[in-house]
Each structure stands twice: as structure tokens, then as C-alpha cells.
Write a structure and sequence with these properties.
By secondary structure, the chain is mainly beta. The chain has helices spanning about 5-20, 35-45; strands at about 20-30, 65-75, 80-90, 95-110, 115, 120-140, 150-170, 175-195, 205-215. The chain has an 8-stranded antiparallel beta barrel with strand order 1-2-3-4-6-7-8-9. The longest helix has 17 residues, at about 5-20.
Length: about 230
């Protein structure tokens, strides 16, 4: 097991022990790539110096996949927590390659309904911030290409959603759970683009499906404020 995996596992164990619960997740974001594909295709097709004189079109499609972690705690049945995630999505045409890379962080508040011991239903709202970069470059080099263009943006917004989690007790007060969470990200500020008069028309607004593994403690393991 490499060092980064050991550190990640140790962090999740620490969060779940000290803060109530913590875990890993994979999120599929269903964003609209139409404006991004159009801008990158223009860079590929336009002759130098505005582009690189290719003939192919960029075809970003499908979900944008985020890998992340989270942690939180309970105040009664109210959940308070947060987390973060990262995404990288490459693409290429005949003359240019491109990478879309993003980082996001969020604070979350929710309310836990637990009709039975092994299941909770949790409406929640994320307050999120995200930043991402689009980097297009000729095939000859990533670090020092003959042609390159980048766009940097950030946004802040809210994502109301609903989570379902099934859990299995494995010690007196500890559990492991599998959860599915659906939400919709609505930008409140942005996207704000960095010093570019003609950026692509792209936003991370959209529907998200998150699936993950969670380790935590039952409320009876705590007294008073459990964060």
C-alpha cells in the first residue's frame, strides 16, 4: 500500500473517531459541455496564431467524475460537516489536446431521519465553492508546447439534495455505511473567469449523483455536542 493511500485511510479513521463519521466518495456531475467543446474546437480549427489549424472537433460528453472525501458530526439529528473533491478530464483532437481539472470544497448541513437502525434518510444542503482550469495545447509538449491556451474560473453556489445510507454495525458503537446522495448545484456567484475577454461558456451547474463508503459512530457513543 503506497504512502498516499495510507495517509487517506488514516485521515478517514481519525475523522470518523473524532467527528462522528467520515469516508470516501465518487461523484458523477452531469454538466453541459456544449460551450466548452465549441471554444476548444475553435482553437483547434482556427489557423495560427489564434488556433492550431486542425480539422477535428472536441467531444467532451458524459459525466464529470469527482473523487473526494468528507467528514461530519451530529447535534441531535442535525448533521454538520464538509468535504472536498478533485476531478481531471482529458480530451484530444488531431492537433490539440486538452485537460479539464477542478477542485471543490463544501460545507454541509442536513437532518437525519432514521426509521430503522440500519438506514437513514437525510435531506441536506451543500454550500460549495469550486475552481477549475481548461488547458489546451499542441501535442508536441505539455509543459512547453508550440501552442497553448488556458482558462481559469471559479464559482460559489448551493446544492440542495437527499441522501440514503444503509449501515452495518461492526462494534458496539461503530458502523460502516454505503450511501447514495443526489443533489443539484446552483451557482450563486460566477462562473468568474480570470483575465480572459472570451472564455468558454461552461459551468458546473447541474445534477450530481454521489456514491460512497462511510465509517462512523452511533449517537449513543457521544455525549452532548458531537462534532
Amino acid at each position: 500500500m503506497n504512502t498516499s493511500v495510507k495517509i487517506a485511510l488514516a485521515a478517514v479513521c481519525w475523522v470518523s473517531f473524532c467527528f462522528g463519521y467520515g469516508g470516501f466518495s465518487v461523484t458523477a456531475s452531469f454538466v453541459d459541455y456544449q460551450g466548452l467543446n465549441q471554444k476548444l474546437t475553435e482553437l483547434n480549427i482556427n489557423p495560427p496564431p489564434e488556433g492550431w489549424g486542425g480539422s477535428d472537433s472536441f467531444r467532451y460528453k458524459g459525466p464529470l467524475w469527482w473523487l473526494g472525501g468528507h467528514g461530519g458530526g451530529l447535534v441531535g439529528d442535525v448533521t454538520l460537516g464538509g468535504g472536498g473533491a478533485a476531478a481531471v478530464r482529458p480530451a484530444e483532437t488531431d492537433s490539440l489536446a486538452a485537460e479539464l481539472a477542478g477542485l471543490t470544497g463544501f460545507f454541509e448541513v442536513g437532518y437525519r431521519f432514521a426509521p430503522v437502525d440500519f438506514l437513514w434518510i437525510r435531506p441536506c444542503v451543500d454550500i460549495s465553492g469550486a475552481a477549475w482550469v481548461h488547458y489546451a495545447h499542441s501535442h508536441d509538449s505539455f509543459n512547453d508546447p508550440d501552442f497553448s491556451q488556458w482558462y481559469l474560473a471559479w464559482t460559489i453556489g448551493a446544492a440542495p439534495g437527499l441522501e440514503l445510507m444503509g449501515k452495518l454495525r461492526y462494534q458496539n458503537y461503530r458502523y460502516v455505511g454505503l450511501f447514495v446522495k443526489a443533489n443539484y448545484f446552483l451557482p450563486v456567484v460566477g462562473p468568474q473567469w480570470s483575465q480572459d475577454p472570451d472564455p468558454p461558456s461552461f459551468s458546473i451547474e447541474g445534477f450530481n449523483i454521489q456514491v460512497g463508503l462511510r465509517f462512523g459512530q452511533y449517537p449513543s457513543a457521544f455525549r452532548g455536542l458531537r462534532i
